[in-house]
Amino acid sequence: MVKKFRANMLTSQRKQLILATLQRDGQLVAKTFSQQLEVSEDTIRRDLRELAAEGLLQRVHGGALPASPAVADFAGRSQIAGDGKARIGRAAAGLIEDGQVVLLDGGTTAVQLASQLPPALRATIVTHSPSVAVALALHPTVEVIMIGGRLFKHSVVTMGTAALESLGQIRADVFFMGVTGVHAEAGLSTGDLEEAYMKRALMARAAETVVLASAEKIAAASPYLIAGLDAVSGIITEQSVPDPQLAPLRQAGVALTLV
């Protein structure tokens, strides 16, 4: 429990304490926090707004959640958790069976999955990611179907009406989905509204969805909700995620694969 502090605590000290509390507890309730620090709730809300503007937390009704660092563009995300993403991609690739139709999301972890498919695998990969398609171009027995549309350069995926219409003709066995946030209460989230709609549309075309989430995305949230945790079959993440961050996911009934 946060001990009480004087009302004249410096703004920088309050902000440091806010971030430390989010890291420790995974959430912050503005009213409770203001009482513990003996300052007004408006003061805490102002601190939260300023920290959110810096990308250091995600504001929600009544307080805040940890912000995901995975909202950088594709090039920036390529520098985050490279080894972990490779392990996640390898584990996901091992779940794909001969004859399956697989929807593969965009993102750096999806590229890792594509590059680690067994050479003898005979399957169909449907993707809206040019990067994934290129990674599969030399695979001898995987058929690749590209979903066309407007290129969203931030994530290097196609989106828009044309992409959504193309999805209407597809029935996949499994969708491997990337996210920027996985939180027991806030669900699965991403940093762009249209991208959230696209991911929901992809989920609707698959019999099941498996989330690929490197460690920095666990217990974090982004502005736009994709779906609740109950909408997916499981999450593949890293063994390095601290157990206090995994425990709420397990309590929510999520099937976790740690690699």
From TrEMBL:
Matching SMART domains:
DeoRC, HTH_DEOR
Q: What PROSITE patterns would the database entry show? A: HTH_DEOR_1 (PS00894), HTH_DEOR_2 (PS51000)
- Does the UniProt entry include the keyword Transmembrane? no
- Keywords for the protein's UniProt record, in alphabetical order: DNA-binding, Repressor, Transcription, Transcription regulation
List each copy of the HTH deoR-type domain by range. 11-66
In alphabetical order, the GO MF annotations are: DNA binding; DNA-binding transcription factor activity
Q: By what name is this protein known?
A: Transcriptional regulator, DeoR family
Answer yes or no on keyword Oxidoreductase.
no
Per the record, the domain of life is Bacteria
PANTHER family (alphabetical): GLYCEROL-3-PHOSPHATE REGULON REPRESSOR (PTHR30363:SF4), HTH-TYPE TRANSCRIPTIONAL REGULATOR SRLR-RELATED (PTHR30363)
Species of origin: Andreprevotia lacus DSM 23236
Q: Which InterPro entries match?
A: Carb_Metab_HTH_regulators, DeoR-like_C, DeoR_HTH, NagB/RpiA_transferase-like, Tscrpt_reg_HTH_DeoR_CS, WH-like_DNA-bd_sf, WH_DNA-bd_sf
**SUPFAM superfamilies, A to Z:** NagB/RpiA/CoA transferase-like, Winged helix' DNA-binding domain
One of its Pfam families is DeoRC
Q: Which regions span the lipid bilayer?
A: none
